[in-house]
Write a structure and sequence with these properties.
about 375 residues, alpha/beta, TIM Barrel, Chorismate Mutase Domain, subunit A, 2 domains, eight-stranded parallel β-barrel, 14 helices, binds the ligand C=C(O[C@@H]1C=C(C(=O)O)C=C[C@H]1O)C(=O)O, transferase, Aldolase_TIM, transferase activity, chorismate mutase, chorismate mutase activity
């Protein structure tokens, strides 16, 4: 399903100073000196397109630094006047929007916690009506693409056409190497729903620590994202918020230098032909895979009918376990990643269960929509 968003191309409202497009600045504006000094160092790299700074900070627990507030808008104005960098801030209420617009902030972004709440997004959207300020919408904290899309639609419906999404990763209960799980599939999914929508990656919030930022940044570029938002502080060791994930402006500059930029379009005809030939092979293999899956499902149907006639349960755990073990080992021997083979088999098995449930319980009522459409 393609989304019906009315969007102006990124290049019509933001001019990248260099490639990749880079929005950088401290997690929080702390003092006027800290913000302005950081802005000067960032501008001097020649790589930064816009200056970001949080001035209203949604903190998970009370008692933490909640942002410097409206006074920060004055500091941003000064930073912009002295460096020429356009400015970007997070807004979470109608009042934030009004104040930021009045102060001439160039780009607003909606944070992950706000995106998760349609009331908040609608309040922000209503406050934006009549303005044509660019707005970037971070993904919600939970991995729910509909919430992300819904927020983008609400802002777009308010008349904002200078629109982009920010991929900042998703909260996870499990402790992993990332502060927020990237779940790249969700960003790719958004791209397929709205190919014209620019997506900026926020490696700082995905990583949660400086060390991972280069890896995440490179991966984001290879996922054809249109830019990066990276937190940068003049002295991260004394940062009031997110100290571990901020980098100095000079470290940021080096990090950007080490990234490899690749093009989404293939221009070289020789390369184009070689790719076309390989893709042709893939097309044939995919057709075979689908044919074989359909054949397998026909056999599953026969098994389902036998089971129905003979009063045998659908799930046969020993057989399933045997399949899982044998195929995983076979896959490993053929250089397939074990996780991949397992996930694929699970998907096939759950479809097989669904099919047999349909056969066994014909005439006993329809399965709920969730069971028909999803494979848990
Ligand atoms: C098809 C069967 O039913 C289920 C589905 C399986 C499959 O699709 O391979 C395997 C075991 C059962 O849980 C079967 O019993 O063989």
């Amino acid at each position: 399903m393609k989304l019906d968003l009315k969007i102006q191309p990124l290049s019509s409202w933001i001019t990248a100073k260099a490639q990749p497009l880079l929005i950088a600045g401290p997690c929080s504006a702390e003092t006027e000196d800290q913000l302005v000094a950081t802005a000067h160092l960032l501008a001097a790299t020649g790589k930064v397109t816009a200056l970001r700074a949080g001035i209203w900070k949604p903190r998970t627990r009370p008692g933490e630094f909640e942002g410097i507030g409206s006074i920060g808008l004055e500091w941003l104005k000064r930073a912009k006047a002295e460096t020429g960098l356009p400015t970007a801030v997070e807004v979470a209420t109608a009042k934030h929007v009004e104040e930021a617009l009045k102060a001439g902030v160039d780009i607003l972004w909606v944070g992950a916690r706000s995106t998760a709440n349609p009331f908040t997004v609608q309040e922000i959207a209503d406050a934006l009506k009549g303005s044509d300020v660019p707005v970037m919408v971070k993904n919600p904290v939970n991995p729910d693409i509909s919430l992300w899309i819904g927020a983008l639609e609400r802002i777009n419906n308010a008349g904002i056409t200078k629109l982009a999404a920010i991929h900042r990763g998703f909260s996870s209960y499990e402790k992993t190497a990332f502060r927020n799980e990237p779940m790249w599939d969700l960003a790719i999914n958004l791209k397929t729903h709205a190919p014209e929508l620019p997506i900026i990656c926020d490696p700082s919030h995905i990583s949660g620590n400086r060390e991972l930022i280069p890896y995440v940044s490179q991966k984001a570029l290879d996922m054809d994202m249109q830019g990066l938002m990276i937190e940068s502080h003049i002295d991260p060791s004394v940062a009031w918020t997110d100290a571990k994930q901020q980098v100095t402006p000079s470290a940021l500059s080096e990090l950007i230098d080490r990234l490899t930029l690749r093009q989404p379009e293939v221009v070289n005809t020789q390369v184009k032909d070689a790719l076309a030939e390989l893709r042709n092979k893939i097309d044939k293999i995919d057709d075979l895979v689908i044919q074989k899956l359909a054949e397998r499902m026909k056999i599953v149907e026969q098994i389902g009918n036998y089971k129905k006639d003979n009063g045998i349960t659908i799930l046969q755990v020993n057989r399933w376990d045997e399949i899982l073990q044998k195929r995983s080992n076979y896959g490993k021997a053929l250089n397939l990643h074990a996780d991949f083979t397992e996930k694929l088999l699970e998907l096939i098995h759950s479809e097989s269960i669904r099919k047999q449930t349909e056969i066994m319980n014909a005439g006993q009522g329809e399965a709920p929509v969730q069971e028909q459409l999803t494979h848990s």
